[in-house]
Amino acid sequence: MSQRQITFEILRYDPETESEPRFQAYCVPCEEEWVVLDALNYIKDNLDGTLSYRWSCHMAVCGSCGMMINGEPMLSCKAFVRDFPNGGSIRVEPLTHFPIERDLVVVMDDFMDKLQAVKPYVIPKKKRTVEDGTYKQTPKQLHQYQQYSMCINCMLCYAACPQYALAPDFIGPAALALTHRYNLDSRDHGRPQRQEVVAAHEGVWECSFVGACSEVCPKDVDPAGAIQQMKIASTVDWYLEHLMPWRRK
Ligand code: SF4
Ligand code: FES
Known about the structure:
Layout: E1 3-12, E2 22-31, H1 36-47, E3 66-69, E4 72-75, E5 90-93, E6 100-102, E7 105-106, H2 109-117, H3 139-146, H4 156-160, H5 162-166, H6 173-183, H7 191-199, H8 212-216, H9 223-242
Parallel strand pairs: 1-5
Antiparallel strand pairs: 1-2, 3-4, 3-5, 6-7
This protein binds iron/sulfur cluster and FE2/S2 (inorganic) cluster.
């Protein structure tokens, strides 16, 4: 099996003891099939046990290993080292636009608060009991929201979003894509409850449609598309409300 010696320049920072972040270089003998996460695990196991980073599944499912790799937001378990230029080093930093907890670990509180604000769960019309049986959906009803349900909350879209950098109150791509996912679900009747957040200035209207969120999304969720569709739905709401109030449901 072929090996490549690759230098990883990794951002290190402990806000409790250090005044500012610094880069530390590690030379790692990488196997052909390794992803960046394998190299980090090698460093942690063999070179420096103090390095901190998040990961769990190693298969692009849990969403916890997002990092900036050579300046791009990526899942480190999906970033093959063989895809980076031969002979160059690989720079690894925590997801940008988020405060650093330690090394490559970021503080997720802002994202969690925004997720909570959009009520990302099915809100039924009336309370159901177990005796009512399972909800049933046709393949067409499932198809309506399925793409938006693939989100793994990895926050790469927030790191890619220039608007989130400028306006931290922006609810942001993933939370809005999940809002759209539940609004489109035939079992859900929670859209009016979510609309206050969606239609606020910090909601869909803060998005300037750069589209970087959809480009970096590892699950093809297309948050930018979801946001534009919600802009149209919110505009229709406004017209119904102000110009044709008799048509309001
Ligand atoms: S929309 Fe895509 S990039 Fe954003 S959190 Fe979900 S999976 Fe990650
Ligand atoms: S380790 Fe789970 S998504 Fe990368």
